[in-house]
Specification:
single chain, mainly alpha, globular
Length: 75
């Protein structure tokens, strides 16, 4: 799953979840997570499921880069 970096960071701030906490839950270091977001790298299936569980599907819907994963109409 690819995410829009700015929207993901704003979701983190809105939810009061720390960057290092998310990185730890995803099994990454803070540097690796920052690099993934900067480059636009995809999260794997387990990481995507963890993010969905943390924030909920409704909150993640606008954050996901649907065009980046080749989906034209997500709903």
């Amino acid at each position: 799953m690819k995410v829009h970096r700015k929207l993901f960071i704003s979701l983190m701030k809105k939810s009061n979840v720390g960057f290092r906490f998310i990185a730890k839950e995803l099994g990454l270091t803070a540097y690796e997570l920052a690099r993934m977001l900067a480059v636009g790298e995809e999260f794997d299936y387990a990481q995507s499921a963890t993010l969905m569980a943390m924030f909920g599907a409704e909150e993640m819907l606008p954050v996901i880069d649907w065009e980046g994963i080749n989906v034209r109409c997500p709903i």
